[in-house]
Design goal:
single chain; about 230 residues; alpha/beta; Rossmann fold; Arc Repressor Mutant, subunit A; 2 domains; five-stranded parallel beta sheet; four-stranded antiparallel beta sheet; 9 helices; about 20% strand; elongated; binds calcium ion
């Protein structure tokens, strides 16, 4: 799967432009224009890299950076204003891996992203948090073993296709968070997917038939008009 980048930038035009370029390069992109929202997203989801503007509504980018890096490791590139030397220093002190000064050439940003992804890969182990088995996600008696690409319910192996496996993984990683069809579609099929959007519902149906129906549980909940969620309790 391609790297997933969270783009935090409140200047709409710039954000849209950078998003298009990143998608064109094959990255999956999620956007936020608000510091507080971005922090929540970054804490709840897996991102391979975060592009973080400093002057943001909601919560200042440096504060987002500090609070985020206290909780998890993820490479952050700061987007800073030309004369904000102190922001750059504070940002690097706070743990940003790099910064780029606005306005920037998109080629330079892309080069810095490639370097950051190469030098600071986010392993599944880190993103899964401390104290958990390496690469294993759980829900009740169900385990998803990422390294072995194996899903079991109470010891019984459940054969899943690649996309079913990815869909289940994304839902398990985000327990108690309702994921929209768009988010699931992007994560499972990639941003450039041009087929039917009901493909998400189709895979949910397959998962329910293989897991819920087979083992008599209610794992995946439909949130009408919004999307799907696996509730942790
Ligand atoms: Ca800004």
């Amino acid at each position: 799967m391609s790297a997933v980048i969270l783009l935090v930038e409140d200047e709409e035009k710039l954000a849209r432009f950078v998003e298009l370029e990143l998608v064109h390069e094959g990255y999956q992109v999620e956007k936020s224009g608000n510091g507080r929202e971005a922090l929540d997203l970054a804490l709840q989801n897996h991102y391979d890299l975060i592009l973080l503007d400093i002057m943001l509504p909601g919560l200042n980018g440096l504060e987002v950076l500090r609070r985020l890096l206290k909780e998890k490791q993820v490479p952050v590139i700061l987007l800073t204003a030309r004369d904000a030397v102190m922001d750059k220093v504070s940002g690097l002190d706070a743990g940003a891996v790099d910064y780029i000064t606005k306005p920037f050439a998109i080629e330079e940003l892309l080069a810095r992203i490639r370097v950051a992804l190469k030098l600071h890969p986010v392993s599944l182990q880190e993103s899964a948090g401390a104290g958990k088995e390496e690469g294993v996600l759980r829900w009740q008696d169900l385990t998803l073993d990422e390294p072995r690409r194996q899903v079991r319910y109470a010891g019984h192996e459940i054969p899943l296709t690649n996309r079913e496996f990815t869909m289940l993984k994304v839902l398990l990683e985000n327990q108690d968070i309702v994921l929209s069809r768009d988010v699931l579609l992007n994560r499972v099929c990639g941003y450039d997917y041009a087929g039917e959007t009901n493909v998400v519902d189709v895979y949910i149906r397959y998962l329910r038939s293989k897991i819920d129906d087979t083992f008599g549980v209610r794992m995946i909940t439909t949130v009408r008009g919004v999307g799907y969620v696996i509730k942790s309790e």
